[in-house]
Write a structure and sequence with these properties.
heterodimer; A: mainly beta; 5-stranded mixed beta sheet; B: 7-stranded mixed beta sheet; 4-stranded antiparallel beta sheet; 0% helix; globular
Chain lengths: 114, 113
């Protein structure tokens, strides 16, 4: 986990607002950058992922922005909804030497107020 | 498609005991990984199984061991339980050894008293 630093630890956003979660990593061998969403009592579920050859990927209200030189990537949730309230994890991986092992951040607890 | 299923859902054990957790991967998946998630933390990688062999291991003591069966299902065994082993244990399956798209089960909540 020390290889990945996630911020903020918690985030409160009003319905319709933008939620932004950041992830900084140390291992330059990482070549897969996903975000996972976890609801209480459930396992993490893949939300969106990006590979290092692109700087941004958008899927509906969710966007990943990737900055290779800064070794950072972020998750943007547009028009945040109460149903988005969950814990979000970045979990980069090095598909070469560590065979898809995911390195999870400590998580960001997002609360969206109606 | 049932997805990744884990059993049991909850478990309470006493210090020093041994526990076995079970996982059935998503249909068509042949690689299983186990993660430990302490309360308020992100999941930490324990080990990964492919073709019935442990392929890589995280920073966990030998008290943690596993097995994969010919039908790709897997078990996680923990011996000499410590209070600090209390956590949510997650099983993840993927379609191949190098696949990063992992599908997680709902986990087994282990409490050691």
């Amino acid at each position: 986990q020390q290889q990945v630093k996630q911020s903020p630890q918690s985030l409160i956003v009003q319905k319709g607002g933008i939620s932004i979660i950041n992830c900084a990593y140390e291992n330059t061998a990482f070549d897969y950058f996903p975000w996972y969403q976890q609801f209480p009592g459930k396992g993490p579920a893949l939300l969106i992922a990006i590979r290092p050859d692109v700087s941004e990927k958008k899927e509906g209200r969710f966007t990943i922005s990737f900055n290779k030189s800064a070794k950072q990537f972020s998750l943007h949730i547009m028009d945040s909804q109460p149903g988005d309230s969950a814990t979000y994890f970045c979990a980069p991986a090095d598909r070469g030497s560590t065979l898809g092992r995911l390195y999870f951040g400590r998580g960001t607890q997002l609360t969206v107020w109606p | 498609d049932a997805g990744v299923t884990q059993s049991p859902t909850h478990l309470i054990k006493t210090r020093g005991q041994q526990v076995t957790l079970r996982c059935s991967p998503k249909s068509g998946h042949d690689t299983v990984s186990w993660y430990q998630q302490a309360l308020g933390q992100g999941p930490q990688f324990i080990f990964q199984y492919y073709e019935e062999e442990e392929r890589q291991r995280g920073n966990f003591p030998d008290r943690f061991s596993g097995h994969q069966f010919p039908n790709y299902s897997s078990e996680l065994n923990v011996n000499a339980l410590l209070l600090g082993d209390s956590a949510l244990y997650l099983c993840a399956s993927s379609a191949s050894l190098r696949s990063t798209e992992a599908f997680f089960g709902q986990g087994t909540r282990l409490t050691v008293v």
